[in-house]
Specification:
The chain is mainly beta and 190 residues long. It is 0% helix and 51% strand. Strand 8 and strand 9 form a beta hairpin.
Length: 190
């Protein structure tokens, strides 16, 4: 009997350009291209992606999934995020927000104009599941359903609250995914 030990390795995907884009409504869609390389095996692989679902006429967040499979069937993946928005570039909603129910903090970072990443979507102490939202106008943000490390998340009962100066003071939503419960998660700017 001959046995072979295969070390689990995954292709690393590299995008040409950025992982985060922001375009104005009607502007051309960025050309997303990627390559994949497995450094353990020392082989290149094709990176499969489909950016045909991007609608540059409709404000929103468009996620382009990229996947690559090595010869052993191990999959490497990443996403490219494209915000379509006419929000003014001087607006920045980044900051630290706290979920009052748990005391868990979430940092909101701007990745491109109007495109934001939340580093603790559940608002639980010590958690680190990330998700993205887009600001499409002065008082509207959208947190679309999206893949995360915990699985595909669906967000309901969303509300983003701005003060008179246009500063985001709080946001809230429910997460529809096993293990997250049914509570409304409310985060307030610190």
């Amino acid at each position: 009997t001959v046995s072979q030990v295969v070390t689990a390795s995954y292709p690393t995907i590299t995008v040409s350009g950025s992982q985060y884009y922001s375009i104005k409504v009607g502007d051309p869609v960025p050309n997303v291209e990627a390559t994949a390389y497995d450094s353990i095996i020392g082989e290149s692989y094709p990176a499969d992606l489909d950016a045909s679902g991007i609608d540059n006429q409709t404000p929103g967040l468009y996620i382009v999934p990229i996947k690559s499979v090595n010869r052993y069937g191990y999959i490497g993946s990443m996403n490219v995020y494209i915000a379509v928005t006419n929000v003014d570039e001087s607006i920045d909603l980044a900051g630290t927000y706290e979920r009052a129910a748990t005391g868990g903090e979430a940092n909101v970072d701007e990745r491109a104009n109007g495109l934001y990443e939340i580093d603790n979507i559940g608002g639980n102490a010590g958690a680190a599941t990330h998700a993205f939202f887009v600001q499409i106008d002065d008082s509207t943000c959208i947190l679309p359903d999206q893949p995360t490390i915990d699985g595909d998340m669906v967000f309901t009962d969303q509300r983003f609250v701005f003060d008179a100066a246009g500063v985001l003071v709080s946001y809230e939503y429910k997460i529809v995914l096993s293990g997250y419960g049914t509570a409304l998660r409310v985060f307030e700017r610190q």
